[in-house]
């Protein structure tokens, strides 16, 4: 299924299980089903083909920032709303508001063959602002409690410039341990540039 969001200059396509994606009055809504996740354990074997989660992704050109306020209907450990970037089957990354395991937390996962997993800071309530930025082959993750002052979370690559030119970016939902959860994304914004400074809060 393809979906056009007026806030974004590129179209979006669904991937993985059905997320029941909808967009109305500036709010994007999706559901994660029971035991849906996208993670390749560094202590285990290859990604289970059944291990997947609903994704809604598109391919922006050049430098960009993708911003959204993410709100999660937490029901179980590791339920999360995600901004997601995908370069290949084993090269992708997640910026999450996650119940980790019982406190809402900004978390990141970068997968290069296998996934890593890192927590950043906790959040009061069920909402936080998330931002993915790209310049060349570099990606940056930021999060914000108010959408104004941004906390630098991570800077990384998923390959060379040739591989990342066609990167898919967008939204994902997950409920690895639970029976599912609903996630909403609002205040969605696209900026065609890279932040002037990654660490000064702008």
TrEMBL record:
Segments passing through the bilayer: none
Pfam families membership: DUF1349
Superkingdom of the source species: Bacteria
Gene3D superfamilies on file: 2.60.120.200
InterPro entries linked to this entry: ConA-like_dom_sf, DUF1349, UCP022704
Name this polypeptide is given: Regulation of enolase 1
Source organism (scientific name): Streptomyces fuscichromogenes
